[in-house]
Specification:
The protein is an alpha/beta fold. It has 22 helices and 16 strands. Bound molecules: S-adenosylmethionine.
């Protein structure tokens, strides 16, 4: 391993994954729905992801927003090579990648445009204080006035009970090396110590469940989460304080339910926080994290915050169109938020979902369908549905070419066993996260085998068999008719509903 990695795990590459919270369309909706003015996202806006990993998010967003320019920066050259290969295969001329460290990005900032949005997902917790400084200086230098920064990180108090397990995993790694073998070894060691009555493990009520879940995760995930030299969960106030150094103010959360008081705390805690914090938004946010034991934050900061007054807010939302992102039959009006599940209101949510089942509709129209046409109630209902990824804000697709090309590349990759978890949805200016059965179904439709479920499943089985992928269910390998019948079952939800949703979103 070379000396360029600054303590960051490079032995196992970061898993390619798409994170929808990074999408400019999502950040813009999060800002507007909480009463803040987002930057204009017309043609020519600029977006940069620092620590872009395999560049999946940058490529998908570039394909979904062909009028804008997207930059991905990451010091891992193998990952940047993969990112460039994906961009080249789909001929995305608006996706640019640099295999630079944050220090190099700062030095060479003159070679980059000024940015409307800078995003860092899963970076801050895992880098040194020096890297954090470089990131802040890069933002200070390259973010436009009125621009947004998206930043996610492991937060306290939610991670406090795992701190010593992480220390133990990292210590074992420094002793034995082997990022691939350490996860099982440290989980076994933790289990043995638990069984032997080690008090740390007994005292942390949520840790056992967390470690059991960790056994189901890949070594690559484990390595990137636990084995870096640097690993630091932050309190919200610490990050807000550091961001202020780059002239950034906290705007809102990209996790929409985190911004809804009734979803983020108990009613009694909300009253205490309101009384204690008054207009101090930073203090209120920190107290909310204590109230719901926050483990992960996805924050939006602005360089200069401008409030939308309520009239501007509703005027700016009035013409916004929304579309279903799941089949109507799969839409649920129970929403999982920071305090667990919150019930929606049937009289509000059902008319909205029923209308969207017939095709996209504007905020103004949807507002007219709910009791008393109350715009604040309509906005809350739509924000809950966006949070649950059941609906998406949409716009007219001007140039579907880049999205179609990238989707073809993603499906071709799946055919030969390389799975990305995403397809581009150009109408929503973002990607939709998909599973294996979805990808098989999309392959069948794209290849003209989507008229009949049994035929699509037979085609799916042929794809898996040709690329040497075996089908297992309940510990047994399935072949031929049994395999085709099982695949038909797995592909049915996509075949019978999601395909129509994807068509509305421009995916197929
Ligand atoms: C946890 S991964 C997140 C990747 C990507 N943002 C995603 O969400 O899929 C963090 C990334 O930051 C990159 N990174 C860490 N330290 C860096 C540094 N000093 N300069 C540039 N990239 C860095 C790593 O190579 C890695 O790809």
């Amino acid at each position: 391993m070379g000396g360029w990695n600054e303590g960051y795990t490079t032995e196992l590459q970061y898993t390619p994954y798409f994170y929808s919270e990074l999408a400019p369309a999502h950040l813009s909706f999060a800002a507007r729905s909480t009463g803040w003015r987002p930057p204009s996202l017309g043609d020519g806006f600029t977006f940069c992801e620092l620590g872009c990993g395999q560049g999946v998010s940058v490529n998908v967003l570039a394909a979904a927003n062909p009028g804008a320019s997207f930059w991905g920066i990451d010091f891992n050259p193998a990952q940047i090579a993969n990112a460039r290969e994906l961009a080249a295969a789909a001929q995305l001329d608006n996706a640019h990648f640099r295999d630079w460290s944050f220090a190099q990005a700062l030095e060479r900032a003159d070679e980059l445009p000024a940015f409307d949005i800078i995003a860092l997902h899963g970076v801050l917790t895992w880098v040194s204080d020096e890297n954090f400084d470089q990131v802040l200086r890069f933002i200070d230098r390259t973010l436009k006035a009125g621009g947004l920064v998206y930043v996610s990180y492991n937060s306290l108090p939610g991670w406090s009970e795992t701190l010593s397990f992480r220390h133990m995993a990292h210590q074992l790694f420094t002793r034995v090396g082997d990022a691939d073998g350490v996860p099982t070894r440290v989980l076994d060691l933790a289990q043995r110590l638990t069984d032997a009555g080690a008090v740390y493990f007994a005292k942390q009520s949520g840790l056992g469940g967390k470690l059991a879940h960790l056994r189901t995760q890949s070594s690559a995930y484990f390595a990137h989460e636990y084995l870096n030299s640097h690993w630091r969960p932050f309190h919200f106030t610490e990050v807000a304080g550091r961001m202020a150094e780059a002239r950034l103010d906290y705007m809102t959360s990209a996790t929409l339910m985190d911004s809804m008081t009734e979803a983020a705390t108990t009613t009694a805690a909300a009253a205490i926080i309101a009384e204690e914090a008054g207009n101090d938004r930073i203090w209120a946010e920190q107290l909310r994290d204590l109230a719901n034991n926050k483990t992960f934050r996805r924050d939006i900061y602005g360089r200069g915050l401008n409030r939308l007054n309520p009239v501007d807010q509703f005027l700016s939302l009035r013409e916004q169109q929304f579309a279903l992102a799941v089949p109507r039959a799969d839409a649920k009006i129970a929403f999982v938020g920071p305090m667990g599940e919150m019930a929606g209101e049937a009289a509000v949510h059902h008319p909205i979902l029923d209308r969207l089942a017939a095709g996209p509709a504007s905020f103004g129209e949807l507002q007219g369908l709910i009791p008393a046409s109350n715009p604040a109630v309509a906005l809350q209902a739509l924000a809950l549905l966006v949070h649950a990824k059941q609906i998406l804000p949409v716009q007219e697709v001007v140039d579907p070419g880049p999205a179609q090309r990238l989707n073809q590349v993603l499906l071709s990759a799946y055919r030969v066993g390389r799975s990305y978890n995403v397809l581009v949805a150009p109408a929503a200016r973002t990607g939709v996260v998909v599973g294996s059965a979805d990808l098989l179904t999309a392959c069948a439709v794209a290849d003209g085998r989507g008229d009949d479920l049994a035929d699509a499943a037979a085609y799916g089985y042929a794809i898996l068999s040709t690329s040497g992928r075996l089908l297992h269910h309940e510990g047994r390998q399935l072949v031929d008719d049994e395999a085709r019948a099982y695949l038909a079952e797995q592909m049915a939800p996509a075949f019978n509903g999601r395909i129509d949703v994807w068509r509305n979103l421009g995916v197929l």
